[in-house]
Amino acid sequence: MYVCSCFGITEKQVKEHAEAGACTPRQIASVSKAGTDCGSCVRRIQGILGRGACPRRELLDQGNGAAAALSEDMTPAGVEAVSPSRLREAA
What we know:
The protein is mainly alpha-helical. It is 54% helix and 5% strand. It contains six helices and two strands. It has a two-stranded antiparallel ribbon. A hairpin with a 4-residue loop joins β1 (2-4) and β2 (9-10). α4 packs antiparallel against α5. Mean pLDDT is 76; it is low at 66-78.
């Protein structure tokens, strides 16, 4: 099902980006453009992401290199890896 009609982003893609470390709508937007045109999908993206803890954000907050290792090991096929520095910029 499409979440963002403007850029053709599906719910599955949003979930894959979240699994790769994009934990906020702003981070999803930075890796997929979803939510950057008309903005009507932002609430749907928030709903998909939920309010759960983001393990990658917690690792980044701790300042260790484990987040970089996780992003390399757990990035789904066809999904751009999100570097820790890009996550910090988007937060």
